[in-house]
Amino acid sequence: MDELQKINVFADGRTSPEVNSGVPILLIQDGTVEVGKLNLGEEHDFNMEIEHPTNQAELNPIATRLIKGKKPQYLKSEVSVIVLCPNIISDKMKWD
């Protein structure tokens, strides 16, 4: 899959394209960008959460600059947008 590819999350827990739980993502909403990973619940027991790394404050501005440069229309979206996180950012995420 391509970096910055949009991920749609449906009410029944499916995603399009299909991704594994724990995939690094960027959450874009209300003109802001947050780094994290998408944690999906078990099939037929849908729950979804976005977990943020401990160094989120350091990485969010980097992710924002990236989105401003490559997909600025996402910052103006009236609905939240979830995209695959580029490795240059996801490799720096800390989870301790």
Gist?
This protein is an alpha+beta fold and 96 residues long.
Report on this model:
With 96 residues, the protein is of the alpha+beta class. It has one domain. Helices cover 20% and strands 29% of the residues. It has two helices and six strands, in the order βββββαβα. The strands form two sheets. The chain has a four-stranded antiparallel beta sheet, covered by helices on one side. The chain has a two-stranded antiparallel sheet with strand order 1-2. A hairpin with a 5-residue loop joins strand 1 and strand 2. The radius of gyration is 13 Å and the shape is globular.
Secondary structure layout:
Blueprint: E1 8-9, E2 15-16, E3 23-29, E4 32-40, E5 48-51, H1 56-70, E6 81-84, H2 87-90
Antiparallel strand pairs: 1-2, 3-4, 3-6, 4-5
List descriptors.
29% strand, 96 residues, two-stranded antiparallel sheet, globular, 2 helices, alpha+beta, four-stranded antiparallel β-sheet
Uncertain runs with pLDDT below 50, 5 residues or more?
Answer: none
Number of strands: 6
**Major pleated sheet:** 4 strands, antiparallel
Q: Average pLDDT across residues?
A: 92
Summarize the amount of helix as a percent range.
10-25%
Number of separate helices: 2
- The largest sheet has its strands arranged as 5-4-3-6
Order of helices and strands: EEEEEHEH
Number of discrete domains: 1
Separation of termini? Answer: 27 Å
The 3D shape can be described as: globular
Determine the structural class based on helices, strands and strand pairing.
alpha+beta
β-sheet strand percentage: 25-35%
